[in-house]
C-alpha cells in the first residue's frame, strides 16, 4: 500500500531540515503554494506541517507563516512526555477522537523509529567500511550470533 501523501511530504521536509538544505528560521512556502507544488490538498499540507511541528522541526506563527526551527531552538524530546501524551489520549471521552489522537502519536513515533533505524544502519555500514566484521559489529551491539537484523 502506498504511503499517505502527508507522510511522504513530511519525511521529505524533515530530511531537508536535518541535512541543512532548509536552514533554521527559513520560512516555508504558504500552504496554498505547498499544495500546488505537491499536487495535494491544503488539508494534506496541514497534516504534514503538524507532523513536522510535533517533531519540533517547524513552528507556525499565526498570520506570518511556518518557519524551520533553528538547531539551537530544537529541544530533545522528554521521555516522560510520551507517558503524559498517552495518559492525555486515554482521558479523551470521544472514542473516534481518541483513536485519531492515538493514530497521530503512532505516526509520529513511526517516523522517529524509521529515522533511528536509518541512522543505525548507516553506523553499521560505516563500521563495516572501517574494517569491522558483521559478526564483530553484531557482538558489540549485543545481538545473538552476530546477526544484524
Features:
149 residues, mainly alpha, 5% strand
Outline type: globular
> Which strands sit side by side, in order, in the main sheet?
1-2
**How many extended strands?**
2
Query: What is the string of helix and strand elements?
Result: HHHEEHHH
User: What percentage of amino acids are in beta strands?
Assistant: 5-15%
Can you give the mean pLDDT? 83
Low-confidence segments: none
What does this 3D model show about the protein?
The protein has 6 helices and 2 strands, in the order H-H-H-E-E-H-H-H. By secondary structure, it is mainly alpha-helical. A hairpin with a 3-residue loop joins strand 1 and strand 2 (65-68). Helix 1 (5-18) packs across helix 3 (42-54). The two termini are 23 Å apart.
How is the secondary structure organized here?
Elements: H1 5-18, H2 31-38, H3 42-54, E1 58-61, E2 65-68, H4 79-90, H5 95-129, H6 134-140
Antiparallel strand pairs: 1-2
What is the gist of this entry?
With 149 residues, the chain is mainly α. It is 60% helix and 5% strand.
Amino acid at each position: 500500500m502506498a504511503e499517505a501523501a502527508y507522510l511522504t511530504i513530511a519525511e521529505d521536509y524533515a530530511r531537508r531540515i536535518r541535512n541543512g538544505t532548509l536552514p533554521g528560521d527559513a520560512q516555508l512556502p504558504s500552504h496554498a503554494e505547498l499544495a500546488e507544488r505537491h499536487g495535494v490538498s491544503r488539508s494534506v499540507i496541514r497534516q504534514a506541517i503538524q507532523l513536522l511541528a510535533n517533531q519540533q522541526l517547524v513552528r507556525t506563527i499565526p498570520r506570518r507563516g511556518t518557519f524551520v526551527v533553528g538547531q539551537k531552538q530544537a529541544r530533545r524530546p522528554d521521555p516522560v512526555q510520551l507517558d503524559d501524551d498517552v495518559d492525555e489520549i486515554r482521558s479523551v471521552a470521544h472514542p473516534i477522537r481518541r483513536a485519531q489522537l492515538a493514530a497521530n502519536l503512532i505516526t509520529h513515533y513511526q517516523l522517529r523509529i524509521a529515522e533511528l533505524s536509518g541512522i543505525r544502519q548507516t553506523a553499521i555500514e560505516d563500521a563495516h567500511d572501517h574494517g569491522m566484521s558483521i559478526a564483530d559489529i553484531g557482538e558489540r551491539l549485543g545481538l545473538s550470533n552476530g546477526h544484524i537484523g
